[in-house]
Design goal:
This is Vitellogenin domain-containing protein. The protein is built from 2 helices and 18 strands. By secondary structure, it is mostly beta strands.
Length: 313
């Protein structure tokens, strides 16, 4: 038999169960997380670190909604790997190496992707920013109701702000060498029309010079726009890609920029990749968040009281 679950407003997963038990629980989506940040400059070897983890997500149903629009997620099996000789002050990079296992809830809105995040009110800012980096890979930024000829522009939110984004949709034959999966994925937007034996690729290029808001105290400069004078890092480009077939989902974001320290300028490349590895039947309910608050996917944004109206968020 097949059991249907949901990555809100984007992917439906059907699980193939050999024995077909009667089940009441939702699906659990298991992703691998690969975060890599690398610094380089002339005449030295690259250095940086890599974080490997798993993200476990379970759809959480709203009593007032026919379908779930909340994804409860937490990180498991975290591992950090350093490479090369670090030339930077530890306080510039260590916050990205620490990965929390605190649960979060991602609340989706069809037109925008992730509308807000539910987290513990006392969560540390650097922990929350790392979770935002990962959650961003599940953020579509568009409902794809009108894709035109496959390339279009729209305004989308991300961890760096609300900016103009160029979307490009292409199709290619699916990689038949992938292992057989116990699930099949179906895209919800009919306009994307995911077919058998093909992969849909959604590329997103952010125009850093056309944003209505920027994350504060995150980068000094976004493209040509100076936002915060006392930050040491400048962001020069941001691109994202989602690759989806009936048996695979991979989402990644790459940010490139520079950082200055001790009269030296380093090139920085930050890449986060989220890969769907398995869909299982959840054996436990989603974890409860103690003293919950709500916030945006925007970096360094405050956590507000859960009772505050969403329009004031």
């Amino acid at each position: 038999m097949f059991v249907q679950g949901l990555i809100p407003f984007f992917l439906i997963a059907h699980i193939n169960l050999e024995h077909g038990p009667k089940l009441k629980n939702a699906n659990k989506y298991i992703f691998t997380v690969n975060m890599n940040i690398m610094w380089t400059r002339e005449s030295i070897n690259p250095f940086g670190f890599r974080v490997l983890s798993q993200l476990h997500c379970i759809p959480k149903r709203n009593h007032s909604e026919a379908e779930s629009n909340i994804l409860s997620c937490s990180l498991k099996h975290n591992e950090s790997i350093n490479y090369g000789k670090n030339e930077l002050d530890d306080n510039l990079i260590n916050w990205r190496k620490d990965v929390t296992n605190e649960p979060i809830e991602l609340v989706f809105k069809q037109e925008e992707g992730i509308e807000k995040m539910i987290v513990r009110q006392q969560i540390k800012t650097y922990d929350l920013n790392v979770l935002r980096l990962i959650a961003e890979q599940l953020h579509t930024g568009n409902d794809f109701s009108d894709v035109g000829n496959g390339t279009f522009e729209d305004v989308a939110r991300s961890i760096i702000g609300k900016c103009r984004v160029v979307f490009k949709i292409t199709r290619r034959p699916e990689n038949t060498k992938r292992n057989r999966r116990n699930f099949n994925l179906y895209l919800l937007p009919p306009s994307l029309n995911l077919k058998d034996n093909e992969t849909i690729v959604i590329d997103k290029t952010t125009d850093l010079n056309h944003c209505t808001c920027y994350a504060e105290k995150y980068y000094c400069k976004y493209g040509n726009t100076v936002v915060c004078e006392n930050q040491q890092a400048d962001l020069e480009s941001m691109t994202s890609r989602m690759e989806i077939s009936k048996t695979s989902f991979v989402s990644s974001t790459t940010r490139k920029g520079t950082i200055k320290q001790n009269s030296q300028t380093y090139n920085v490349v930050e890449t986060i990749t989220l890969t769907l590895e398995d869909v299982q039947i959840a054996t436990n309910d989603p974890p409860a968040i103690v003293n919950p608050g709500k916030t945006k996917i925007l970096a360094n944004y405050d956590v507000k009281n859960i009772l505050i109206d969403d329009e004031q968020l």
